[in-house]
Amino acid sequence: MLDPQRLRTFRSVVATGSIQAAADQLRVTPSAVSQQVSRLQRETGLTLVEKVGRGIRPTPAGMRLAIASGEALRSLTRLSALVRDLREGKTGHLTIGHFASAGLAWMPTIVASLRQEFPDVMVELVLNDVPGGSTLSQPDIDVRIAVQGETVPSGFTRLPLVDDPFVMVVHRKHRLAEASAVALAEFRDEEFVANDFADSAVEVIQSYAYAAAGFSPRYIVQAADHHTALAFVAGGIGVTMLPVLATTDLPDDVRVVALTEPVPVRHIYLLVRDAIAASPVARRVVTLLHESTS
User: Fold this and answer.
1) Facing residues of 51 across strands?
2) Phi, psi angles (nearest 5°) of residue 109
3) Which of 95, 200, 205, 218 is deepest in the core (most CB within 10 A)?
4) What phi and psi, each to the nearest 5 degrees, are found at residue 226?
């Protein structure tokens, strides 16, 4: 089995770009970092780094190892946290999956309530909208965006939560900034800022809406999240279509315009594991989520 500490040290070297920078980050000596990397190379039988001038860089094999070891180390961190919580008497465990805007809007209040009401339960939050990412298992309670053709996993029940309409976010000096509601087709000649990954649930809903309005948007910036997209709009670079839930913390220089003809909507629902659905903590989470959306 590979030594976790050596892997962490090696990943720090890859991330910072040098032995010295990794040593500074880890607060150890450069010789200690070099020894850890050398031992990992002997342990794996691979050449993981190569010298470039006065510095080093990962070999292709080293880069693959650094990337692939990320999830394993995160799993070990979760396991260590579980052991710590078991020592402290926290015998319950609940995982809650969520997408980014739901996490920002709802999860801090929900987790604060759970920690107060169920101090012996360990609550773990996991993002469910990261491309190519996955959790080791389906979360006990998963806040999801409906996608056409999906099925309910075995052992889970689907519960509707809320419908979240989309709006257009524009700069405050935009010609439609003061309009109360605008047909989506009015934006056909605009320059757009993308705000999610390709083929995500949000991007699919947006694509159907643009098709229904009879045009394809001209994207000039590809942002991977709504915070970055909002920053571009605030800078006067294009407009962006977002669900209302993602517009709770807006920059001063942007305005929200309601959409008509059509009104794009994302349907948000819960997946609840049947085995824990009747537990007090699971019932409380479902109640808190409904209270957050009412």
Assistant:
1) 56
2) -65, -40
3) 205
4) -75, -25
What single letter denotes the amino acid at residue 215?
F
Q: Angle between the 4-16 and 19-26 helix axes, to the nearest 10 degrees?
A: 120
Whether 32 and 53 map to the same domain: the answer is yes
The DSSP 8-state label assigned to residue 187 in this structure reads G
By the 10 Å C-beta count (0-12 exposed, 13-18 middle, 19+ buried), 76 is classed as: middle
- Kindly state whether residues 155 and 286 are assigned to the same domain: yes
Report d(CA 150, CA 160) in Å as an integer. Answer: 14
129 with 158: CB under 8 angstroms? Answer: no
Q: Is the model's pTM score more than 0.85?
A: no
Q: What is the largest CA-CA distance in the chain?
A: 66
**Chain-centre distance for alpha carbon 249:** 17
Cα 146 from Cα 148, distance rounded (Å): 7
The CATH number assigned to the domain holding 180 equals: 3.40.190.10
C-beta contacts of 288-293 below 8 A and 24+ residues apart: 288/106, 288/109, 288/110, 288/113, 288/114, 289/106, 289/110, 289/143, 289/161, 290/161, 292/105, 292/106, 292/109, 292/110, 293/106, 293/161, 293/162, 293/268
Element (H, E) at 149: none
Same domain, 42 and 118: no
Q: Quick one: tokens of 81?
A: 């946290």
- In this predicted structure, the answer to whether residue 213 has a pLDDT above a threshold of 70 is yes
Q: Return the closest-CA partner of residue 188 out of 259, 122, 245.
A: 259
Interval 10-48: pLDDT, tens:
999 988 888 888 888 889 999 999 999 999 999 999 999
